[in-house]
Recover the amino acids of this structure.
């Protein structure tokens, strides 16, 4: 199931021109504006990838031999900020990201809800500039492990008729 899901995510990462860093257990880590200059639309790219990743997950059967198990549901979170990146290790070298921004992004995901996209205030501000057509709903202040209280946002897709589509309601 993870292979089918991650293959779909890999295709989406190509489509949205984002860089897949790694999979960690059942988590898929991707980044924008790192290996390519995407300063003017990096937040928009990751948000659009997130919308499509939820759709892909919701179309992926948990067990292809038993459709009664249903489809995959995911949580998504992102943050914008500086990172340190390099290949580490000699036996099985891997390209890794380090820094507080990586930890904050992880906390956005772990504090998200099923089939929802959750982001930090910094990402919300960038997304508001880069993609005003995407709806941001203030979640308010939440307690984030290792960070204290943070003001965070739900990222929701606005459809053509100006109705807000919240993937958490699917």
């Amino acid at each position: 199931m993870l292979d089918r899901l991650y293959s779909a995510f890999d295709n989406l990462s190509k489509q949205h021109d984002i860089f897949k860093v790694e999979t960690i257990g059942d988590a898929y880590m991707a980044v924008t504006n790192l290996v390519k200059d995407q300063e003017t639309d990096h937040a928009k790219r990751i948000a659009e990838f997130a919308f499509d990743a939820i759709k892909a997950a919701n179309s992926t059967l948990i067990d292809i031999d038993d459709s009664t198990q249903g489809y995959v549901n995911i949580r998504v979170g992102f943050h914008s900020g500086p990172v340190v990146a390099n290949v580490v290790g000699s036996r099985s070298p891997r390209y890794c990201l380090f820094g507080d921004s990586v930890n904050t992004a992880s906390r956005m995901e772990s504090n998200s809800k099923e089939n929802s996209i959750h982001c930090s205030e910094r990402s919300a501000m960038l997304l508001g500039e880069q993609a005003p057509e995407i709806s941001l709903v203030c979640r308010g202040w939440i307690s984030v492990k290792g960070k204290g209280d943070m003001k965070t946002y739900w990222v929701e897709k606005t459809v053509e008729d100006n109705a807000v589509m919240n993937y958490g309601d699917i």
In short: Residues 135 and 156 are 5 Å apart (CA to CA). The chain has four helices and nine strands. Confidence is low (pLDDT under 50) at residues 165-170.
